[in-house]
Amino acid sequence: MIFASDNWAGAHPAIASALSDNTHGFAPAYGNSLLDRRVEQRFRDIFERDVAVFFVATGTAANALSLTAVNKAGGVCFTHSEAHVIADECGAPEYFTGGARLVPVEGPLSRIDPARLDEAIRRYSADFIHAGRPMAVSITQATESGTVYGLDHIAAIGKVCREHGVPLHMDGARFANALVRLGCSPAEMSWRSGVDILSFGGTKNGCWCAEAIVIFDPDKARDMPYLRKRAAQLFSKSRFVAAQFDAYFENGLWLSLARHANSMTERLAAHVEVSGRLRLAWKTEANEAFIVMSDTTRDELKNAGVVFNPWHAGANAALAPGEAIYRFVTSFATTAEEIDQFGKLIA
Amino acid sequence: MIFASDNWAGAHPAIASALSDNTHGFAPAYGNSLLDRRVEQRFRDIFERDVAVFFVATGTAANALSLTAVNKAGGVCFTHSEAHVIADECGAPEYFTGGARLVPVEGPLSRIDPARLDEAIRRYSADFIHAGRPMAVSITQATESGTVYGLDHIAAIGKVCREHGVPLHMDGARFANALVRLGCSPAEMSWRSGVDILSFGGTKNGCWCAEAIVIFDPDKARDMPYLRKRAAQLFSKSRFVAAQFDAYFENGLWLSLARHANSMTERLAAHVEVSGRLRLAWKTEANEAFIVMSDTTRDELKNAGVVFNPWHAGANAALAPGEAIYRFVTSFATTAEEIDQFGKLIA
Amino acid sequence: MIFASDNWAGAHPAIASALSDNTHGFAPAYGNSLLDRRVEQRFRDIFERDVAVFFVATGTAANALSLTAVNKAGGVCFTHSEAHVIADECGAPEYFTGGARLVPVEGPLSRIDPARLDEAIRRYSADFIHAGRPMAVSITQATESGTVYGLDHIAAIGKVCREHGVPLHMDGARFANALVRLGCSPAEMSWRSGVDILSFGGTKNGCWCAEAIVIFDPDKARDMPYLRKRAAQLFSKSRFVAAQFDAYFENGLWLSLARHANSMTERLAAHVEVSGRLRLAWKTEANEAFIVMSDTTRDELKNAGVVFNPWHAGANAALAPGEAIYRFVTSFATTAEEIDQFGKLIA
Amino acid sequence: MIFASDNWAGAHPAIASALSDNTHGFAPAYGNSLLDRRVEQRFRDIFERDVAVFFVATGTAANALSLTAVNKAGGVCFTHSEAHVIADECGAPEYFTGGARLVPVEGPLSRIDPARLDEAIRRYSADFIHAGRPMAVSITQATESGTVYGLDHIAAIGKVCREHGVPLHMDGARFANALVRLGCSPAEMSWRSGVDILSFGGTKNGCWCAEAIVIFDPDKARDMPYLRKRAAQLFSKSRFVAAQFDAYFENGLWLSLARHANSMTERLAAHVEVSGRLRLAWKTEANEAFIVMSDTTRDELKNAGVVFNPWHAGANAALAPGEAIYRFVTSFATTAEEIDQFGKLIA
């Protein structure tokens, strides 16, 4: 019973096969193969517009390069204090940008409050260069708390961004999980709601290693080939990423996998809610559940072979002494049997 | 007839299969799986000593992070003017190090002359901080000219490094091709000859995406986990690299593939030597041939479907008007039939 | 009546004269003159130990280079949210360090709470490299709120630093103002209380341009000559800084100037306390007063020619509608007459 | 007899006095005083057009920030191998730009050959991002070899720059020395010949610390306030630089000082030419002479109290065994008596 992270899963068989099937033959390197081109077209189809697409090695790279592409001297990026760019990237955004600053903006359950965002940006004035200047807003969809920004919420943030002339970045490491929750189109959840640049993740949802930067205005993508290469993120055998995305998108596999992952978390949450011993820290909407339990229960579950991790950003739930919050993540590879086995354990 | 680059090949079937076979099941992320550990042990076995190993996304990343690990303020790295770090990485070493300088040191056929290296390093004095200070020497094995440093040559460079207290880095993007040419052990071609840190490449020799930084003194590797993560080079599903290396090393596959690639270049060179119309620009030792031909011949070959590229760093060969140098690269995927077909074309 | 900032004052006549007197004659450049050496010795005398001293152009440079000297990959520096390094340096610390992060730690009146500091540092674990790692703590003495850390307070912070193996930096842009308030020795207010590296400011206290980095363990200063030169902070005619410091230290001028500046703020505060219309936002201890007044009063004072600025970091005082906090700064150049003239205005 | 460097001189009395005279009174900080504004206007008058002016601490800062202002990802700056930016700035340009590369272009006596420059730039193609891309050309006027670019020479380089869409930077640490040699206007020697951005130096020609970045198209200067502040180069008491420049420009003092310095080198050269024991390595045009002498003569002169330094970039002169090249620099502070005393010594 592995709930440690969706990146503990391997690759989906269809994606692994696609990769194997592309093993043979020669193809231009560095993103110039026909397969690379075809997958770029798939992105355009999915997003219903011309976009510029750049494969990179990791979600951290997608985020850090996205912010580098829009950074300016003295640049400040506003993001939630629990965002991956702040909490989990060892300073990669600051490093890639050559020293931009991430300024936290709060809001319940890892979602930025648009009013607070507006207030935070207003603190910076062109008359006072000493403080630096806004260069981006970054939101995470789905968030690190397993919640999802609704379309109105994104649009409200997008509006604040446009009013201040600041581009909006979306960290979509779990883009698919949020998308199927909202039941909207990729276009609606991104550029139609004001997103300018997107980190599009495939790795957590069934790929081995498939991440992409999507720039919705291709005119603004002219520097990215240099930014990516300079950051050592241009794969020579780029088609090994393309092949994964190709299978990922085929017949809507990516959506099916995300739906499955989300439903496994729902099933898990249902077990938790009927158990007397555990409770949900808050209601989540994607493929992560945050569960409150006592140390005794935690040890019991660990001894029974359940793998999961404590969650430190727990300002969002009230805890009794001896209780703590734990994160449970489900993925395309989680099975209903596994969940029900866990349900029995906690019944 | 594809001779554009060894990175136009796909993956060797055994490596692709190993990757597919590891698709299922869960495993700790970020390099902590059993498979990651087993492959690290393979590196120790191969190099006959304790080493620290770090998988990264690209050869450029391996080089740039290796140099970052040893850089100092005002740092200068000495390398051949034709080295990949200078010619082909879009400034990644300078970017990752935050501004180190690459100072070219010459020598015939892309190999650094140890005497010139010594002279170049001596120009820097602790009394004159304005010039900066030596922080590394980087050699490429096999070189960008298809040549190979002999063990004595590496040792001579290693001696200069030690005399000046400067670490020696080896860019081993084609480590295997050089190794089988020399017929020595990996230990002999690296740390026993004075190499401190190695970019060990698998991608050009049959992997999809398998590069590693090998630090021969693990005590000096303590910062690398942070350096790598900060540079967005830590794969979450790291085992997809480990699985490739596992198959790569199994039963000496890597050596067989390199031997094959080298022998294909030898076969190609033999065809060139007997043809009246082409000639070798210089004798090579690994899996690249540099061929002089007229523009007419070039066009003829291109029209016949031969894919190859011009070579700009051609200071090493005398050319007649209307002649130029072209690079032909063979790989694990090149076949004798393909070579012989080319031989017929130029006969 | 100029209370905008202590950097609106010019230079003290004795310092200006010393500079003029050193105009003639030749002297080795780049900090190698006898005068430079003599002033370095003065620093050793003042701090009662061997120290390494490096002149730089600005306080921002002193801070940014100090943090660069101790930074590591993934490095995090803890400092108060109102500190100059966060609020007023346009990201220079992040830029110079190549992307370190400044993490705010709160405490009343711009002084870090040692318990919160300990808690903040403890969040970082060597087992979780994704979050980065502590590399420094930086405190401002006197603070941006005009308060002063007591010796016990500094020692408590120093103790937390040592327990976690993290160096302690002091931004001493107003070192002298704090020192004369505490009435202790420079050694007591710095290394004897656990400070490892100090930005020692002279500019705000009567110099034109005299800032120095003081490293209390000279063995840890070996990289600083390169760091400083690489950051374009090594003056060729370095003695123009040395001459200023020479006069600054002569006969305790620096202490007299700081005492004067502080006493002018006290005199100003006394006037405020007896006026019915203004009040102190909080009690200060150095050369800055923070004054609450209505918009009407503000406009009246401005019209009367009083120059002062609003203060945004006003979480520390309760305000009525139509009120705001304003910062008044006095300096060596402020006169009692000017203060009393202001006193009459507000009576 | 001090010929070590023009930065061994102090400040000209008129400049020192102007600084002292500005000691009293208050003025807005950070470059906003009336004096700052007046001096900016002086720059506009001198250059006969609107310009943006930014004072900085050192010539290295002026150069490094100028190049940072025009840098791009993968950026390459072309400059002479003997240029100050390459030889004497400890990697500051690379550091400030976050890793741009300086690519040497040769030409006799430290002057870039326009044809070689064109050839060097042409090697970079938008089709091959791996090599990086041109971002600037930087020339030094007067050069490190004491020579001066003629107007036609600058214009020829400017033409190459425009053809390739690359901005032209001039390192004018010795701008005045070159200007009076050519006898042209500042406008002619800069923007009228194609220079886009200028490091304008006052320090070597009689100021204590007065360097400025001059951007000839103010529309392109919008980021510079942030770039400068982020680089810790914004002086709070900025008027101490302004006061120096004010006196420097008053009544053409700067031109007189440069004429004097140049004439002192001419006088020195005349003595050398009639002495039997020394000879000029090459003919110079500004305030530096490069002199060939034997080790014996060198020791003799040193013992007689003459201060001067060896010159390493001596590829430009033929030397006999036991001979070497030495640099002699004169300044505004050098006297004819001192030169003639030296003349007697070598007679």
Short overview:
4 copies of one chain form a homotetramer. With 347 residues, the first copy, chain A, is α/β, with parallel strands linked by helices.
Question: Can you tell me about this structure?
Answer:
4 copies of one chain form a homotetramer. In chain A, 40% of the residues lie in helices and 16% in strands. Chain A has 14 helices and 11 strands. A 7-stranded mixed beta sheet of chain A has the order 1-7-6-5-4-2-3, with helices on both faces. Chain A has a 4-stranded antiparallel beta sheet with strand order 8-9-11-10. In chain A, a hairpin with a 7-residue loop joins strand 8 and strand 9. The radius of gyration of chain A is 20 Å and the shape is globular. The two termini of chain A are 16 Å apart. The mean pLDDT of chain A is 96. Chains in contact: A-B, A-C, A-D, B-C, B-D, C-D. Chains A and B meet through helix 1, helix 3, helix 5 and helix 10 of A and helix 1, helix 3, helix 5 and helix 10 of B.
Topology:
Four copies of one chain form a homotetramer.
Chain A: H1 13-21, H2 34-47, E1 52-56, H3 59-70, E2 75-79, H4 84-87, H5 92-97, E3 101-104, H6 114-122, E4 133-140, H7 151-164, E5 168-172, H8 175-182, H9 186-189, E6 197-201, E7 211-215, H10 224-230, H11 239-249, H12 253-274, E8 279-280, E9 288-294, H13 295-303, E10 309-310, E11 323-329, H14 336-346
Parallel strand pairs in A: 2-3, 2-4, 4-5, 5-6
Antiparallel strand pairs in A: 1-7, 6-7, 8-9, 9-11, 10-11
Helix pairs in contact in A: 1-11, 2-11, 6-7, 8-12, 12-14
